[in-house]
Amino acid sequence: MNIKPIVAVTMGDPAGIGPEIAVKALLQDNVTSICRPILIGDAATLNDIIKRLALKATVNAVNNVSDARFEPGVIDVFDLENVDLETLHFGEISAMAGAASFESVKKAIDLALAGEADATVTGPINKKSVNEAGHHFAGHTEIYAYFTGTRKYAMLLVEDNLKVIHVSTHVSLRQACDLVKKDRILEVVGLLQDGLISLGETNLKIGIAGLNPHAGDSGLFGTEDDEEILPAVEEARRRGFDVEGPVPADTLFSKAATGFYGGVVAMYHDQGHIPFKLSGFKWNPEKKQMDSVKGVNITMGLPIIRTSVDHGTAFEIAGKGVASADAMVLAIESAVQLARYRKTAYPAT
């Protein structure tokens, strides 16, 4: 695209690090050189963060995307005026903060559906605060699916060589086992390949994790691998996918980290998230904080583009000015890549 895409970035929970990492990211040249970012949230909150961190930036509060300036050093904010700074406390769960973060997400979705934004990027929210505000969703993925009317979707995590999609995410472990079904596995294999192609990945070999230890070991440790996962692998091959599995999870991810697989299918949330975060999250034991937090969360299957940081609100360091914007920058870069691919592959949209 000759014209840089407009990317709507939500501020996340105002009591967490979302506003901080959003501002830090939008002040970087490598972000503004590839897109036209606009923050969705509360302008007063963003002004407060800029003053606290003594950042060289000004806020341009707008009520329409068309009023954004998209200039270096200027943070364009689609101002929802929904945070009471007098009652906001960093690191605390509150219905007010939950409502503000939810409204930011909803506005970003609306702008993308209306064609006013080419992609959306979400800052971290606190699920408890959102639910206390009366919005009963398990997370961003479910919010996006509901308001876009999407039934077939999946969470794809991206960090360097690791690209991990999930059969299930925000459910109990007991329920996750019941959701390991042939049709769902086939569905996420297709979504994963679409994601790999959209991100410009040329290695389309997909590794599919087993559910049980040693992928069930011929039924000794469970039957799901033989009865659901293996038939899905065989059917995927018949459909032309380059797949391997079920592979025991304790060996699958070590191979994936080297780039052997273009992407992998995890059967449940922690099976995919733990190796992913071991790769992208770097803890400093001396400082007792993260030196770097990398990783992008992409919701596949939506009619609009949504990427996100793959970390939480980090209440313990909110307002201290030490939060890393690495993941936010990566999420924006991924959103731009997806927007460029979509414009090229579907020029009429």
From TrEMBL:
Domain of life, per lineage: Bacteria
What residues form the membrane-spanning segments? Answer: none
MF terms (GO), sorted A to Z: 4-hydroxythreonine-4-phosphate dehydrogenase activity; metal ion binding; NAD binding
Coiled-coil zones: none
Keywords tagged on the record: Metal-binding, NAD, Oxidoreductase
What is the E.C. number? 1.1.1.262
State the top-level EC class: oxidoreductase
Is NAD given among the entry's keywords? Answer: yes
Family annotation (InterPro entries) = PdxA_fam
**PANTHER family attached to this UniProt entry:** 4-HYDROXYTHREONINE-4-PHOSPHATE DEHYDROGENASE (PTHR30004), D-THREONATE 4-PHOSPHATE DEHYDROGENASE (PTHR30004:SF6)
Q: What is this protein called?
A: 4-hydroxythreonine-4-phosphate dehydrogenase PdxA
Higher taxonomy: Bacteria, Pseudomonadati, Bacteroidota, Sphingobacteriia, Sphingobacteriales
